[in-house]
Amino acid sequence: MKLPIVAYGDPVLRKVCQNIDENYPDLTKLISNMFDTMYAAYGVGLAAPQIGLPIRLFIVDTGADEDGNPGFKRVFINAVILEESGEPWAFTEGCLSIPEIREDVMRKPNVLVQYYDENWVMHEEALSAMPARVVQHEYDHIEGKLFTDTLSLLRKRMLKSKLDSISRGDVRADYKMKFPQQRNKKR
């Protein structure tokens, strides 16, 4: 089932998320719905806060590469980045919660991450290049951070009106979104 993606401006995107355990209700269904949602929005990662849940869960699927090799696909539960290393490199990032805005973001090329998978098996995995970048982006979400937080003060000022428009719902996306005003109207 495709879920609405929470838009920029919603407070859930700024919360440091809570760990969960294997008894979290309907976790398997939630993970499946998150993959459905991410694929429908043509994303490569999706974090639980982006669907309104302040829990430490995110998914990644980078898809097959240009040579047809399988991509990097994982479920990350209660993830902790233990180490980031290497010379930072710029890459243009976007975010399903911030449609129509893409910016160069500097990130280190290597990470060591510890997490549980969907079967509650603990992993400690070294990642590099694109998988590392996507994991860092999604990890930021469960830490209450957005890729726009990494931008210079000048660039943030230049994007302010666009970001305000997104939080008001004045944006078009090819997927279902939930805007902060919609959430407040329901209360």
Core attributes:
30% strand, Peptide_deformylase_sf, 187 residues, five-stranded antiparallel beta sheet, protein biosynthesis, hydrolase, metal ion binding, 4 helices, EC 3.5.1.88, 9 strands, Peptide Deformylase, two-stranded parallel ribbon
How would you characterize this protein structure?
The protein has 187 residues and is α+β, with helices and mostly antiparallel strands. It has one domain (5-186): Peptide Deformylase (Alpha-Beta Complex). It contains 4 helices and 9 strands; from the N terminus they run βαβββββββααβα. It has helices at 27-40, 129-142, 153-168, 180-186, and strands at 5-6, 45-47, 57-61, 73-85, 89-95, 98-107, 110-116, 122-128, 177-178. Strands 2-3-4-7-8 form a 5-stranded antiparallel sheet, with helices on both faces. The protein has a two-stranded parallel ribbon with strand order 1-9. The protein starts with a strand and ends with a helix. Mean pLDDT is 94; it is low at 183-187. GO terms for molecular function: metal ion binding; peptide deformylase activity. This is Peptide deformylase. It catalyses: N-terminal N-formyl-L-methionyl-[peptide] + H2O = N-terminal L-methionyl-[peptide] + formate. InterPro entries: Peptide_deformylase, Peptide_deformylase_sf. Belongs to the polypeptide deformylase family.
